[in-house]
Write a structure and sequence with these properties.
The chain has 177 residues and is mainly α. It has one domain (44-167). 63% of the residues lie in helices and 0% in strands. It is built from eight helices and no strands. The chain has helices spanning 13-37, 56-66, 76-88, 92-106, 108-115, 126-137, 142-161, 163-169.
């Protein structure tokens, strides 16, 4: 067994910097394109405060995967409204970043290369969504890891705030006063 490193590494420091610069330029261009095309300026979907119509297919697709093993799919609509309320209470800067994340996931130009889901979210299989989440979780790009963490944390906060989730995790609920 040899413990030496290969003579020529597959990705040098310079190569990583070039890749990171290219990815940053790509994401900035996609974000600028989304804002110029009006993606970010959409009005909220009917019955929601902040979530837009284009955000709903993404969330409908990822909720059962992120909250697998819970009763979340049965309460998806209530979970979306809880998430919407959470988003409405964010600072304007955090809300803008979150909506930009959803824009990147919604736009076909960015969705395919960044997530590996080339078709619509409605047609994405659970395996494709799991692969996308793992890809972002283990990405060498900090921006994708932050997007993964944001998506997970927002959905989990909304889910565990709901009384329907408490029995599933053994929480009896807040004490009665």
């Amino acid at each position: 067994m040899t413990t030496s490193l290969p003579a020529s590494p597959t990705l040098s420091r310079r190569g990583l910097l070039k890749f990171s610069l290219g990815a940053t330029a790509f994401l900035a261009t996609a974000g600028l394109g989304a804002s110029l095309s009006g993606c970010s300026a959409q009005a909220p979907a009917s019955g929601f405060i902040t979530l837009r119509q284009g955000d709903l297919p993404i969330l409908y697709a990822v909720i059962p995967v992120i909250l697998a093993g819970t009763a979340a799919p049965d309460t998806r609509e209530a979970l979306l409204h809880r998430l919407d309320t959470k988003l409405a209470s964010l600072s304007p800067a955090m809300l803008k970043l979150t909506l930009q994340l959803l824009d990147v996931l919604a736009l076909p130009v960015t969705r395919g290369p960044l997530t590996g889901i080339w078709g619509s979210w409605e047609n994405a299989s659970s395996e494709q969504i799991v692969a996308f989440l793992r890809r972002w979780e283990n990405s060498s790009l900090n921006l994708l890891r932050m997007g993964h963490a944001s998506l997970l944390q927002l959905l989990q906060m909304a889910w565990y705030e709901m009384p329907e989730s408490w029995a599933h995790c053994g929480y009896p609920g807040p004490p009665k006063v």
